[in-house]
User: Which sequence fits this backbone?
């Protein structure tokens, strides 16, 4: 399995939409004071959350946040977004570009926390040992495919990984990525080229180990 121009579209279709289906529920907006009235700001933020919570969750996972911590990290992203909501201005890239900047910071913080506290609450064993109900085989196969993706992505430096994820999975253009990440366009192309090679090497290495 490689990420080339020929199969990138199929890769995106396979990876992106299936992630929410594996989850049992969405993170809630606990801890965020959102009025239930007709307040325009509250309704706008609720719409932002509903439309983009899965985008935030899956990109936190792609940037190295463990599945056991992804819901809390998603909550953290939207807490920050709620606090800075008045600052949001669509410069032509949509709210996902703004949210991804927050995702990058939260994911980086989670990685630093992981280095200081390496133990995951259940070590992932609860996921690995879950019972397989009839009809769940496809979902578990997708989950295993996503784990392979995570392992391959984990071998890529965070800066290159962000560019790779935005381009290959979220289908953003190189100029959009340059604006979001705050790097020159040529650097986007350079990081993408290296990340593709690293990703393919990671998958090949995983295949060889198996």
Assistant:
């Amino acid at each position: 399995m490689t990420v080339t121009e020929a199969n990138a579209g199929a890769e995106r279709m396979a990876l992106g939409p299936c992630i929410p289906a594996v989850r049992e529920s969405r993170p809630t907006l606990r801890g965020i004071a959102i009025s239930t009235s007709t307040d325009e700001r509250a309704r706008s933020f609720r719409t932002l959350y509903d439309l983009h919570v899965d985008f935030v969750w899956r990109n936190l996972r792609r940037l190295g946040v463990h599945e056991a911590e992804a819901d809390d990290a998603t909550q953290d992203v939207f807490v920050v977004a709620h606090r800075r909501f008045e600052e949001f201005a669509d410069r032509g890239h949509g709210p996902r570009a703004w949210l991804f900047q927050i995702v990058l910071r939260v994911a980086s913080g989670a990685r630093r926390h992981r280095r200081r506290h390496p133990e995951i609450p259940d070590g992932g064993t609860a996921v690995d040992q879950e019972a397989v109900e009839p009809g769940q085989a496809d979902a578990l196969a997708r989950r295993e495919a996503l784990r392979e993706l995570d392992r391959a992505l984990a071998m890529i430096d965070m800066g290159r990984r962000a560019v790779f994820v935005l381009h290959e999975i979220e289908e953003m253009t190189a100029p959009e990525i340059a604006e979001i990440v705050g790097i020159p366009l040529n650097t986007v192309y350079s990081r993408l080229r290296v990340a593709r090679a690293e990703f393919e090497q990671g998958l090949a290495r995983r295949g060889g180990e198996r």
Q: What stands out?
A: Residues 1-24, 122-132 have pLDDT under 50 and may be disordered. The chain has one domain: 8-26+35-117+140-209. The radius of gyration is 18 Å. DSSP finds ten helices and no strands in the chain.
